[in-house]
Design a protein that fits this description.
The complex is a heterotrimer of chains A (about 290), B (about 260) and C (about 375).
Chain A lengths: L3 H34 L2 E3 L3 E3 L5 H6 L2 H34 L2 H12 L6 H12 L4 H8 L13 H26 L2 H9 L4 H25 L1 H4 L2 H7 L6 H11 L3 H28 L6
Antiparallel strand pairs in A: 1-2
Chain B lengths: L2 H25 L15 H8 L1 H34 L5 H13 L2 H15 L5 H25 L4 H8 L4 H30 L2 H6 L7 H9 L5 H29 L1
Helix pairs in contact in B: 1-11, 2-11, 3-6, 3-8, 4-6, 6-8, 7-8, 8-11
Chain C lengths: L3 E12 L2 E12 L3 E5 L6 H9 L6 E6 L2 E2 L10 E4 L11 H11 L4 H14 L15 H13 L5 E5 L7 H18 L2 E6 L2 H7 L2 E6 L2 E6 L1 H6 L4 H6 L4 E10 L3 E6 L2 E6 L10 E6 L4 E4 L7 E10 L3 E8 L4 E7 L14 E6 L5 E4 L8 H11 L1
Parallel strand pairs in C: 3-8, 3-9, 6-7, 7-8
Antiparallel strand pairs in C: 1-2, 1-4, 4-5, 9-10, 11-12, 11-14, 12-13, 14-20, 15-19, 16-17, 16-19, 17-18
The chains are: A mainly alpha (about 290), B mainly alpha (about 260), C alpha+beta (about 375).
Chain lengths: ~290, ~260, ~375
């Protein structure tokens, strides 16, 4: 806080600008969504009075409940697969010589900088009925006729994993990178075996990274509606697809808003869990 | 057992890159069906550039990404400076809000903005897209610049003033050059996020301003369009060049 | 002939309601090397920053050569600062760092080049002008910071713990170097440090600070040999405190009882009354360790002996359980040095080497101050 007197006008201008932006384009719209969710559907004006909780009741309509549970299942599977691939990956990455690590991380980020639609589309080339995977498997004699890979639940999960894997790996890499080698040596020195060290030292110390990764994967895995659109066909929908349909096609805004609030609540819970795990490690305020 | 982790790393990288390699190879494929190899050809690149709507969408997207990245870098850098230099009430709230924007699912941001624009009677098009894109780019720029400022020696501005620089001159000759790499990195991150965005744009764009991701989206939803291979390859090369450029700047500044 | 260059009068500064500098007045003479010495949090850096203009005092005035500069921004003050961690501009070469201040004055290019080269030659870095700061060692960065500050030919150079980031050996070299520079340039140096050894060896005058108040102002010798109060005595160098009681007062001498030993000492400058408790201060090098059957001195026993090369330090526990340290020149032929741990001895000193202080109300030192003083010794 140096020389604050002279900078008051500048400071005020900056604060007004950023507060204005956030209040107007983040807080106000989100309040609008909350408002929308308790209003009545109206095909002409999108929403109208009176206020009610119909939209929330509709969330428990068996038809939609099934879609949500299926979406949650696919998101959970995506997260699990990302974690299973990403955890050992991040571990191995953090043990590579420092000089090479930078290049490897660069290689990990390159796909992230590439258009995600195009990458999803590239999977289609591979997974299609007469696509490369089927062709390969048939020429190897493993299967006799093309398997149905595209437009399945599996295809959606593969697509989501492919897009979201770096978001699992990067936070995990960061905790593994902070994990000091001498802590592991100390554990061995005190008589713990490989498994005991893993369970008692490595897992607790990398837990914040796991939760950060879960947060970064699970939520988008429920919202990225273009993945099922391209790879999943009409039966493998995400919450994101439901919200999009309600807003852009079915014109049931209150219901779409209620579904989106459900996602926000899920986010809040995950963020809370993440904070809790960090606080346990004494990294408060981070 | 040192080969095991390395083999594993290599395998995951292979899986990450196979689709991209397939895409690039197939963009030069002469075959119409898209699954079998029909010889080298540039026909898809040709048909891409002959598609006027496509070229227009490309320019629209570039312009949108350029402006959104620039505006969010300006606001984001100022915000980061304010968060770094000033103590003010609600600082934690501001920080928290930026974090929430970054973490919240894009689709939530998308419908909330759609609601706002309709309520205000704003015609969906370039302006609504710009406002939306700046909003989701902002936290990323703030974080990038904040990270740089965290390592910034508080004594540098004082040293400059001690040697006779006014506040303005200090900002121009010391502060901005030192945080420049972060500004560039933030700008490029914003640019890429904007070029790549499908979810938010699906909601807040209108027929008057078609952008590339939406154009691609409508093409890839059904069947295979070999032009997409060519377009994807071009986008890949483009982002590789950008990424290498930003990497070069960052490594140069570290010297 | 000395004339006043800078004077602070009635300066106060608070941070978040905590008083850091408390109605402090100080005048600094032209051409002197003055050191602000004190533990961390004593206000020495804040004081320096108010001279530089980075902080504005809540009360009081700062005058430079008779001109009030209290409100003058730093860029308009003809003083320059050498920062603790140098604060070199990382994106500029050594040359551009040093040239920065002259460019701000809009000097012609040729003049800038000449003066920068001259300044770099002065700190023996003429061959490094194209390097970036990160390509230099700590000591070299330190020299660049000094060159950058003196190239503007300031009336006064402010140095904020400039040597604290250097290792012990380099620090010694730089101390000599700084003294040489100050002599050559003939400008006033205001030096901030918590290292009492550094302060003693470099300064013309030392200002001992604690809690934003001046404890003592004097030459290094005065501060070391005649500390004004218990704090200064403890903070500057090592001191043994013997409890004494006044038993008789004469014209120029007083008799004092120390552990039953009656000694006639010079009368101190403060007022004494009979039966008044006193501190009898003795530096370790002023103490003598005698055989237990000696008639002189105070009884005690050896609890620790440390061989320090040219001297031998003995820690001796006195009857009341307090410990004192004696530092004697080592003489291996002298049987008196054969005391082993646990052996009874007597401790004495030559009359006139002691220094007397009245007991103070706010004794003893708090733990924090002890820690700060400990830090300062390392």
């Amino acid at each position: 806080m140096m020389l604050s007197i002279r900078q008051q006008p500048f400071r005020a201008a900056v604060l007004v600008l950023v507060w204005g932006w956030l209040l107007f384009l983040v807080l106000a719209p989100n309040l609008l969504v909350v408002g929308t969710s308790v209003m009545t559907r109206n095909p002409g004006t999108f929403i109208s009075m009176p206020l009610n909780l119909d939209a929330y009741r509709q969330l428990f309509n068996p038809l939609y409940l099934e879609v949500f549970i299926h979406s949650l299942y696919m998101a959970a599977m995506t997260t699990l697969v990302c974690l299973l691939i990403g955890y050992p990956f991040a571990w191995a990455l953090s043990r590579v010589e420092k000089r090479r690590q930078m290049l490897l991380i660069f290689l990990l980020i390159v796909p992230f900088w590439t258009n995600s639609l195009v990458r999803t589309y590239a999977l289609k080339l591979i997974l299609a009925t007469n696509g490369l995977l089927n062709q390969g498997l048939m020429s190897l004699g493993i299967i006799d006729e093309p398997a149905q890979l595209l437009y399945t639940e599996g295809a959606v999960i593969v697509g989501l994993v492919y897009l979201l894997l770096p978001f699992m790996i990067l936070p995990l890499y960061s905790v593994f990178d902070d994990l000091r080698q001498d802590v592991l040596l100390a554990s061995h020195d005190l008589g713990a075996g490989r498994f005991a060290t893993f369970k008692n030292v490595i897992v607790p110390l990398t837990l914040p990274g796991v939760l950060a990764g879960v947060m970064l994967v699970l939520l988008p895995a429920m919202g990225l509606f273009f993945v099922p659109d391209i790879l999943g066909g009409s039966r493998n929908l995400l919450v994101g697809n439901v919200i999009k349909n309600q807003f852009l096609d079915a014109r049931n805004w209150p219901f779409g808003a209620a579904a989106s609030i459900m996602l926000t609540v899920a986010m809040a819970l995950l963020m809370f869990a993440h904070r809790l795990s960090k606080r346990r490690l004494g990294e408060e305020g981070a | 057992m040192r080969w095991l982790p390395r083999t594993y790393l290599a395998l995951v990288y292979l899986l990450l890159y196979v689709p991209i390699i397939v895409l690039v190879v197939f963009s030069f494929n002469d075959s119409r069906t898209g699954y079998s190899w029909g010889g080298l050809s540039l026909r898809w690149y040709e048909s891409l550039f002959n598609n006027h709507a496509m070229v227009q969408a490309m320019w629209n997207s570039l312009w949108l990404a350029l402006t959104a990245a620039t505006v969010s870098t300006l606001i984001g850098a100022l915000t980061a400076l304010a968060l770094h230099r000033y103590r003010f009430r609600g600082k934690k709230v501001l920080n928290g809000m930026l974090f929430v924007v970054m973490m919240s699912p894009e689709i939530v941001l998308a419908i909330s903005l759609l609601g706002l624009f309709l309520l205000l009677g704003l015609k969906l098009g370039y302006v609504s897209l710009l406002l939306a894109h700046v909003t989701f780019c902002l936290p990323f720029v703030v974080i990038t610049v904040m990270a740089r400022l965290a390592g910034f020696d508080e004594r540098l501005p004082e040293a400059a003033r001690d040697l006779g620089a006014s506040d303005f001159t200090m900002t121009r000759t010391v502060l901005i050059p030192v945080i420049m790499p972060a500004l560039m990195a933030g700008w490029m991150l914003g640019f890429t996020l904007s070029m790549d965005d499908v979810v938010v744009s699906t909601f807040v764009s209108g027929p008057s301003y078609e952008i590339l991701p939406l154009r691609i989206y409508s093409m890839v939803r059904v069947g295979l369009k070999p032009e997409v291979n060519a377009l994807g390859t071009l986008l890949l090369v483009f982002s590789l060049v950008m990424l290498m450029f930003s990497h070069w700047i960052l490594s140069r500044s570290k010297q | 002939m000395t004339k006043t260059l800078l004077s602070l009068s009635g300066i106060s500064k608070q941070f978040d309601g905590k008083t850091v500098v408390d109605e402090l007045s100080l005048t600094i003479d032209d051409g002197e090397f003055i050191t602000l010495l004190g533990p961390s949090g004593c206000g020495k850096t804040t004081l320096l920053r108010m001279m530089a203009g980075f902080e504005l005092p809540d009360q009081g005035t700062v005058t430079l050569s008779g001109v009030d500069i209290t409100q003058t921004p730093p860029e308009e003050r003809p003083l320059n600062t050498v920062f603790q961690n140098y604060a070199l501009f990382p994106h500029m070469s050594v040359f551009d760092n040093v040239a920065y201040g002259l460019k701000m004055e809009k000097r012609p290019k040729a003049e800038i080049r000449e003066r920068v080269e001259e300044a770099l030659a002065m700190v023996q870095l003429e061959d490094f002008s194209r390097r970036k700061p990160h390509q230099l060692s700590g000591g070299q960065q330190q020299r660049v910071a000094i060159a950058r500050a003196v190239v503007k030919r300031p009336k006064m150079l402010l140095l904020d713990e400039p040597l604290s980031a250097l290792d012990y050996k380099l620090r010694r070299t730089m101390q000599v170097e700084l003294k040489r520079l100050q002599r050559e340039l003939g400008i006033t140096f205001v030096f901030v440090t918590h290292d009492q050894e550094e302060a003693l060896s470099m300064s013309d005058r030392i200002v001992v600070l604690k809690d934003g108040l001046i404890q003592q102002l004097g030459t290094p010798r005065e501060v070391y040999e005649r500390p004004a109060n218990v704090f200064t005595a403890r903070f500057v160098g090592q001191t043994n405190f013997f409890p004494g009681r006044v038993t008789g007062i004469e014209d120029k001498r007083i008799s004092v009882d120390v552990f039953g030993l009656n000694r006639v000492l010079g009368k101190p400058s403060f007022r004494v009354t009979t039966n008044q408790p006193l501190h009898v201060l003795l530096r370790p090098e002023d103490l003598r360790v005698l055989a237990p059957d000696d008639t002189e001195g105070v009884a005690g026993k050896i609890v620790e002996r440390n061989y320090k090369g040219s001297t031998l330090d003995s820690v001796i526990e006195l009857e009341d359980g307090s410990q004192v340290m004696a530092s004697e020149f080592f003489d291996e032929d002298d049987p008196a040095f054969d005391y082993s741990i646990g052996e009874p001895v007597r401790v004495s000193w030559v009359d006139g080497w002691e220094w007397l202080l009245a007991e103070e109300s706010d004794e003893p030192l708090t733990d924090e101050e002890e820690l700060a003083a400990d830090d300062a010794e390392h």
